[in-house]
Structure formats: C-alpha cells, structure tokens
Amino acid sequence: MNAFIEPPKKTNILLRLGIWFSEKVTGRVMLPARLLAWYPKAALGSGLLEALVAHQDGKLDARMLKLVRMAASFAAACPFCIDMNSYEHEDLNINAQEVAALRGQSELASVNSLTARERLAIEYARLVSQTPLKFHPDFIAQLKDQFSEREIVILASTAAQVNYWARLIQALGIPPAGFSG
Predict the structure, then answer these.
(1) pTM, two decimal places
(2) Residue 108 resides in a domain
(3) Exposure b/e, 116-148, CB count within 10 A at least 16 = b
C-alpha cells in the first residue's frame, strides 16, 4: 500500500535536516514528514506540534498519556496512528486486556488494572475524537473533579494532536510505518 502521492524529489536543506532527524529518532522512514515537504509551512507547523507534545507532566505520567494517544488513535481508526502510538506500550505496563478495551473490544469498566483517572482520560480522548464533539455536563463535572485545569488542557491537546495527525495521514493515504512489527 502506497500513499496517494510521492514525496518531492528535492527539498530544502532545513526540511531535509528535519526529516533526517525524525527518521533517526524513530528508526523508520517517516513518510508523513517527506510528504509535508511539498508545503514547507505545513511541515514546519506539524514538526513544531510534534516536538511540543507532552509525554509526561506531573500526575499525567507517560502511561496515562500513552493510553490517551492510543485511545484517540483507535477512535480515529487511523492505522498509522495506531501503529505508532501503540509502539512499545508494554514498556509502560499496558497489557493485552487494556489494549482490547482501548480497541473497544471490551468495556473499560471491566479492566481492573485501569485506574479511575485512566478510564476517565480514555473516555475524554474518545469524546475529543468523535464528530460531532459532544460533552455531557455530568462528564465534564467528573473530569473537573479528577483533573486540574492544566491536566485537562494537556489531555485535550494530546488527543487533538493525535486527531490532527490521523486526519492528515489518512487524507494523504499514508500506510503504517511498521512500528508494531
């Protein structure tokens, strides 16, 4: 499976450097970065967005934010995003039962290893990923009871960032990069 378009044959030196860096970090050919080279402003903005994503912040640890990224990836049904955001989930003690729940194959409430905050964050990521966006006042009250304002912004921006990439990647027909095998 190939993307809808080919990368440009020539890119400017700054974009080549950014592509090289992203591929060095990931160990994969990063087709999204290569295709964005067609429009350098989009490449720059997307690269900046990716560079500033939260991977942990206070009580929002790496596991919690990985769960949010995975939940948003599954909700957006983006194979590339699922592949990339699920990569090395075992390193954060995300088990097969939790992955099945993230995929929607079982109820979150039935997974005892997920904390109440994790379940709420996952549900929030799913709500952020649906169209149209709808947030019940009772849910928002629970969210505000469990998370600080800063944490809510981090959760929302993390899920929204995954959704940005999901839309862009699927709009360009980019296949998974092979992170998960």
Answers:
(1) 0.94
(2) yes
(3) eebbbbbebbbbbbeeeeeeeeeeeeebeebbe
